[in-house]
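Protein Record: Sequence and Backbone Structure Tokens
======================================================

Structure line: whole-number tokens from a learned vocabulary of local backbone shapes, matched to residues.

Purpose: to set a sequence beside its fold so the mapping can be learned.

___
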Amino acid sequence: MNIILLGPPGAGKGTQARNLVDTRDMIQLSTGDMLREAKDSGTEMGKIVADVMARGELVTDEIVIGLIREKLEGDKQGGFIFDGFPRTLAQADALATLLAECGESLDAVVEMQVDDDALVDRITGRYTCGNCGEVYHKTTKPEAVDGTCDKCGAQDMKHRADDNEESLRTRLMEYYKKTSPLIGYYYAKGQLKSVDGLGEIAEVQSAIAGALDG
């Protein structure tokens, strides 16, 4: 089974992708991870990626498609999760062509829908222990003693610099501008399945499983 996970920043795509990797033996194809892996691989494609990144240039769609092709021609395990690609209609067309050339198909596109205001509240209220990485939230999961980690006792709470409302709403607007056409594209193909991305992690896992198996 090959799927695409769509969802705005902070919707929890990474968490759900890891669950699918664990429960269905799928392979997560994250654009960022593939580029970092290729850069250090020493392969011909890797040398091209390293050269482009060294010059500070943007990696082209052709390069990303080339990296995905390498993965599709390798061990398929339980199928692939496309995370962070495609982002545009041109990329969606290129991916469809590549899958057909590799004898593969796209089984589902799972859109993790969120309410923007609720998402902003969830993300901006989030902070972590700088020592052990335990995650807290100002309303849903505050530490028992203000400023002290429940898990390790450290007093080193940190907020991500881009977890502020202005930054997050900018990222959301950019996501919707680029991705909205993809929603219609995959809906027209009958491949789009939408789930509520703001539930508890287990609830979202269950909804995605239902969408994939239904």
About this structure: The longest helix spans residues 165-188.
